[in-house]
Each structure stands twice: as C-alpha cells, then as structure tokens.
C-alpha cells in the first residue's frame, strides 16, 4: 500500500487505474475542496473515514496537509510487460536518494514521453509519500519499476537498448547530438546519486558517457534538471 | 543576515567573497568534518560559538543538520551594476514560491552560464535558508537580485534584452530554436508560479511566449526542470 496526500494527488488517483483502499478526511482541518472530493470518493463506493485533526496529522507526511489523503494499492508493474514499440526512451536511476528528485524525475520522464523509469538498488522507494507527492500524479500512470542491475541489463540487451550514462567525464552532450540521426531509436539513460554520481558498475556498464557542459564555478546540476535536459536533447 | 547550514554550504561560503559574521557548532552532534571546518573558520578570525545540541537544533532549519551553520551578510547586489558583455542570458522568476525550486534554479542558472537570476515580487526570499541550501553554494557567487517589474522592464529595455516567457500557450521551443541564429545575443527568460504559471503582467509584457512540448497526460514540468531545458536550448 502507499499513501497519497492532498487534493491534487487524491484527484489524480481517482482518475487512474490504481485501486484506492480508503480515504481519510480531517474533521476540522479539511478545506472545502477536500470535502467535495471526499464526497466524490464516497460515491464511487470507496470507504471514507473522518478522523480528528490530531489523527490526521499523525498519518500525514506533509507540513501543510489539505485534510485529505488516500491509501491505495501499489500497482504491480513488471519489466517484462513494458510495451516497447519503435522509438523509446528509458530513464534509469542509479541510487538517486532524494525522494523529491525521484518524484520530479518521474514527472519529467512522463512529460517528455519516456516509456518508463527504472530504479536500481540504492534508489529511494518509488512509493515513498514524498516521491508520490513530487511526481504530481505522474507515478499513477507512468510505468516506474524497481529492478536489479541484472534484470536491467538483460532487459536492455533483449530490447536492444544502448545505455548512456550521465557523467562529468563524458562526451559533451552538444557534441553527441548534432542532429536527430545521432540518437538511437531506442535509448536508456542512467543518472546517478546526488553526491557520488554513477556507481562504478553503471559507469563501466554504459555504452557511452555523456556530460552537460557547465560552468567551472558549479560542481554539478541537480539530477532532475540534468535528466530533463538529457531527455529533451535526446528525445 | 542569512543562515547557511551544513558542511558544504559553510565551506562554499568560506570560498566566496561574502562576509561571515559567525559560525555555530553543535557540542555533541557535530561530525568530525564539521569540527575540522570550524577550526578553519576560527583560523580566519571568524567567531565560532559552540552551543548545546538543543540550541543548535533550535537555530537550524534542516532535519538532519551536520552540526554546523554560518550566519553571514546578505551581499548587496544591484541590478544597475550587473556586468553585461556580449552574449547574455537572464533568468527571471515571476512569483516562484517553493524555496527548493528557487535554489535549484539559481544553481542551474549559474551552471548553464546565465549572467543573473532576477526575482519579481511574489517570489520567495532569495536568502531563505532552504533557497540557500538548494542553491548548493551557487547563490554565493551567481548574482541573484530581487527587483520590481518596473525595475526589470527598464533594465531590459536599457540593455536591449528581449523577454521570452515560458507558457503552455507559447510557440513550441523546438520550432523557435531551429539553429543558433534563431536565438538573440541577449535574452531574458521569465518563468512563473508553480500552480498559476506566468502572471498576466509577465504574459502580456513578454516579447514572445515559448512552450516545451509535453505529453497530454502531464499538466506541466517542474519549474526548475523547465528553466534548465530552456536555458540549455537557448544558450
């Protein structure tokens, strides 16, 4: 099970194929829109439980909850069942630890048309409340799947996806992408941990390393921003 | 004055021209690296005050402080004194409210070579502890300046900067940028609030509106990711 907090998330959940087990509404703290949404949930036959504000706060993770949260089934998603047709982009997260970054990457991957986001061990749990929140609903329809390095490499090899890694020592992105023909039809891009970058396994396993040129005064880009630029440039 | 928390931020501050007034170190909670850094601070003649862990936590904003924080002067930065030579990019924030987004945008703007980041009223205070933290030190050297709409427009007009706004109703970015000659030598880009987008004043005041194409299943990109893509594409 996972928890989705706030009006927007509960609303997006309702419009997704994910099964909602139940919804909690704060008796005092819920705002008008939360109460209207709770009524819609109830009409769908989903249990709605009113709780005291103290109970609600103890269940909620956000600092300013809107007085509504849903408890839902983590969808079963399988690497083998990913629909790959023609041109395809995969985002691979190698021990990305900040839940806000992971949620933002899932949102970005969905927005920029990636087929899926795959998370390697060491990456924060995809269904962590803060990942759910910062994905802004994208996690409810974009396939995001945790897998091992072995499962990833066998999937990429079966689907003939080259793996490009984002690494400061890589070839500059602008030199790699001179025209649309420079980018393979199928491509998986791996980005690494916020502090340490790619693991040595990913760095060595990648078919190519690419870098985004940045000023020498700055150590690195935020990983979600870097993923967005790579996905856009390599679309 | 502003507060910079954690080893990395204090270390970056020390290497910047900003005046540090003093440093607090937690008596029990500071890790080894924090203690070494505090010794360096003291050698520079900057006052270091050891405080109890409870006192430290009451002064710190982060959930997992590393037992060190610095109090420093907000640098005086003036729009009129911005050094503009040749090709230049400016990032303008129109009521961007989330401090993590603003800090990440400052980091991105510095990394991708923007001359400055200008914040319009309604944008979170640039020296908020969370903005400082998420800028990863970029705020200490990249000129980030709060200004009014009138100050902005007069500066842009004097410097002959066209203003392009990021807006879903704009011309697709890939159609705007077909080659390097499609992008003006000087360019200011304005991005809007996380929920509401650009204010009507910015939308109407912009010389051109541009959009990043996204999937219909996603409402928008995160504002820091969108800024990163625009800055990279329009570099």
Describe the structure concisely.
2 copies of one chain form a homodimer. With 235 residues, chain A is an alpha/beta fold.
Structural commentary:
2 copies of one chain form a homodimer. Chain A is α/β, with parallel strands linked by helices. The first copy, chain A, is built from 9 helices and 10 strands. Chain A has helices at 7-14, 32-43, 53-59, 99-111, 129-134, 149-158, 173-176, 200-205, 223-233; strands spanning 2-5, 20-26, 48-51, 68-72, 88-94, 116-119, 144-146, 163-172, 186-192, 208-211. In chain A, helix 4 (99-111) packs parallel to helix 9. Chain A is elongated, with a radius of gyration of 20 Å. The relative contact order of chain A is 0.15. At the A-B interface, helix 4 and helix 9 of A face helix 4 and helix 9 of B.
Structure characteristics:
10 strands, six-stranded parallel β-sheet, 33% helix, 23% strand, four-stranded mixed β-sheet, homodimer, alpha/beta, 235 residues
Strand order of the largest sheet of chain A: 7-6-5-9-8-10
The 3D shape of chain A can be described as elongated
Largest interface: A-B, 31 and 31 residues
Task: Give the mean pLDDT of chain A.
Answer: 94
CA-CA gap between termini of chain A:
33 Å
What is the total tally of β strands of chain A? Answer: 10
Give the SSE order of chain A as H and E letters.
Answer: EHEHEHEEHEHEHEHEHEH
Q: What class would the helix/strand composition of chain A place it in?
A: alpha/beta
Q: Show unreliable segments of chain A.
A: none
Number of helices of chain A: 9
Please state roughly what percent of the residues of chain A sit in beta strands, choosing from under 5%, 5-15%, 15-25%, 25-35%, 35-45% or over 45%.
15-25%
Q: What Rg of chain A do the Cα atoms give?
A: 20 Å
Helix content of chain A: 25-40%
Classify the oligomer.
homodimer
**Quick one: biggest sheet of chain A?**
6 strands, parallel
């Amino acid at each position: 099970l996972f928890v989705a907090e706030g009006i927007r998330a509960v609303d997006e959940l309702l419009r997704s194929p994910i099964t909602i087990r139940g919804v909690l509404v704060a008796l005092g703290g819920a705002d008008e829109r939360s109460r209207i949404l709770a009524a819609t949930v109830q009409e769908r036959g989903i249990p709605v439980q009113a709780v005291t504000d103290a109970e609600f706060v103890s269940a909620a993770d956000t600092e300013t909850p809107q007085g509504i949260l849903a408890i839902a089934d983590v969808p079963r998603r399988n690497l083998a069942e990913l629909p790959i047709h023609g041109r395809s982009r995969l985002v691979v997260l190698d021990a990305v630890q900040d839940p806000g970054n992971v949620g933002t990457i899932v949102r970005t991957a969905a927005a920029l048309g990636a087929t899926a986001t795959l998370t390697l061990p060491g990456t924060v749990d995809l269904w962590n409340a803060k990942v759910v929140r910062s994905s802004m609903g994208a996690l409810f329809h974009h396939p995001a799947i945790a897998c091992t390095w072995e499962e990833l490499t066998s999937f990429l090899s079966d689907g003939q996806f080259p793996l490009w890694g984002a690494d400061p020592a890589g070839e500059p992105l602008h030199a790699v992408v001179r025209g649309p023909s420079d980018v393979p039809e199928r491509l998986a891009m791996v980005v690494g941990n916020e502090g340490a970058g790619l693991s040595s396994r990913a760095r060595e396993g990648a078919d190519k390393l690419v870098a985004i040129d940045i000023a020498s005064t700055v150590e690195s880009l935020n990983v979600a921003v870097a993923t967005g630029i790579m996905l856009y440039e390599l679309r």
